[in-house]
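fyi for ur records
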Amino acid sequence: MLVNLNDVLKKAQENHYGVGLFNTTDTDMAEAVIAAAEEMNSPVIIGTAEVLLPFGELKLIAPSIIALAKRAKVPVVVHYDHGLTFDRCLEALKLGFSSIMFDGSAGDTDENLKQTAEIVKIAHSFGATVEGEIGHVGQADNNDGEAKDLYTTPEEAEAFVKATGVDALAVAIGTAHGAYKTKPCLDIERLKEIRAKIDTPLVLHGGSGLSDDDFRNTIRYGIAKVNIFTDLCLAGKEGMKEGLEKDLEYLEIRNLKVEKIKAAVKRKIELFGSQNKA
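which gave:
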């Protein structure tokens, strides 16, 4: 069934488990994610991000993932991740996404507040939820996830939520997008302080590549939504490589790719604690 963030994250926060956002660029990945969620009886968040649109255009993938969500046996949020422009966020809403993230974190803080607040008003009129970001989650390939001056402060988080009315808040505590070159060092004490300041569900970006203990600790101390993409790509690549080495036919390789991605999603669902929480 198609739901929004409020339908899944509030329960996750109250019961101390995390719900995974698994970004997808095609129906193979989407099929794998939904199948894994149904087998694990877990709520799930599926979608795509603005930076991924060159690999799966919004108008092409939206009808498929929304249809999958509507007929799924578990709650599925269809989320537009890291929306960088008003036009693309509005397009996602008009196409039927039940949730969007507006990411103005790389720009001026006041402008981020203003634009996020405006997007919240618009999205709520569609019955959709909004995730915002304060602080800045960096890129693993240049190690700027370790730049502590970009980390979210508890005061910033509290002010941002009050000014914008977001339904979920992405915080920067030491993670980064992409594949890590060095082991990330997460600021759990900062996360605890943010959680103590606000009741809004918190989001961890840059989840792929973290240790199991990292995931458990962040969820234990306040994270309700965890974003995963790179790990799915690596699993799919492994499946295709295995299929090619076995000289399988194209469709057999495709099925092996889907199974590998599904297995990766199931492992994350178990790790996040959302199994049997649908």
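Residues 250-272 form the longest helix (23 residues). thats all i got for now
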